[in-house]
Design goal:
440 residues, Alpha-Beta Plaits, Trigger factor, domain 2, Chitinase A, domain 3, 3 domains, 4-stranded antiparallel beta sheet
Amino acid sequence: MTDTATTDAASEISNPLERRIEMTVVLAEIEKDVEQRLKQMSRSVKMPGFRPGKVPMKMVAQQYGSQARSDAIGAAVEKAYGEKVREQQLRVAGYPRIEPKADVGTGQLGFTAVFEVYPDIVPADISGQAIEKPTLTVTDAEVDKTIEVLRKQRTTYDETDRASATDDRLVIDFVGRKDGEEFPGGKASDYSVMVGGGMMLPDFEAQMVGVKAGETRSFDVAFPVDYQSPDLAGNTVQFEMTVKKVEAARLPEIDADFAKQLGVADGDVAKMRAEVRSNLEREVKKRLLARVKEQVMDALLKANPVDVPKALVGMEAEQMAEAARRDMEKRGMGMKNIPVEASWFTEQATRRVKLGLLLAELVKSRGLLVKPEQVRAIVDEFAETFEDPKEVVRWYYSQPERLAEAEALALENNVVEWALANATVSEVPIAFDALMGNAT
């Protein structure tokens, strides 16, 4: 058995990470292996009219010869491939594609293994990369805003006989007609909708203000040209709306009952505010770090343009597609009618693979290995929001594989700290609503 390594020039141009290994295997050695495999099979093979282990070798060869020969050739090629990879110290990414090769010597079979290797990465200097570090200190104003959000989430509604206003809730019947005919999706009964909530088209929204229970209105509604239904897009139709109820919003008072709803058993409002502040500080810290981390990763990618193996990108994209399928199934969406293609995730998968390779090299070359105390600190943060933090910590440490998420976060944090110490960093205050994604 012999093998040689070659590089295909055209392949190098299109994919600089692609490599080729040409191999030849000696047929006489293959035949010896086939014979050994058939002998092994004959000890346990079963055929009608024969006891196990007593089937004539000729019949075993007739029945299983092709399988044995295929397995023998596969094993020989795999051995030759593995030896050459180890000899050249190649870091193979993914699996090889084995192609038959013609024009080889008598008594031999020829093959070419086509595969990709990991790129050689030398992390670049990032001192010229600019990173803006957002800053925000939680004050009483942010606590008050958060409590207001929590109040709105617990809004109740009281029926009223006054005319409707913004933030009221209406219970309505409506029917839409195009050219005098009702159209699909244009009719509903006992439909609850917020006044000013933006759930309806603008012309419809305008008619929900200033109406009372029992009132009926007829009006035109213009559909936008890009509306999802082609039959309605760009058309003006007629709606009739009957108001059954007008319900006024009522926010809960900030009192002991409200505090108890938020989990403060004794209803102490001061304690509730302290817990809200603590939770808010934790969330703000997480979001600030996420913004910095995103900039660090962008800076690393910009400073380190790198080719990545297509095989790794493909595997990552498939994993992302599978995760999306599972998520959609959990949401009750029928996957038979909603195919999810791995190709949809190629761009995101490429970014992930690049960052994974870069971070691994940075950790190795800059000594950014994760320490046990860093992992424990992150696990403690995970556990803080649970009723029994000690039990949560025990759960994580009861099986080492459960620590993978915390270890990954700790590693990323080490890279972020290294980047902030080496890049050009400027602190920039950020507004609370902008950080939290609140509408202004």
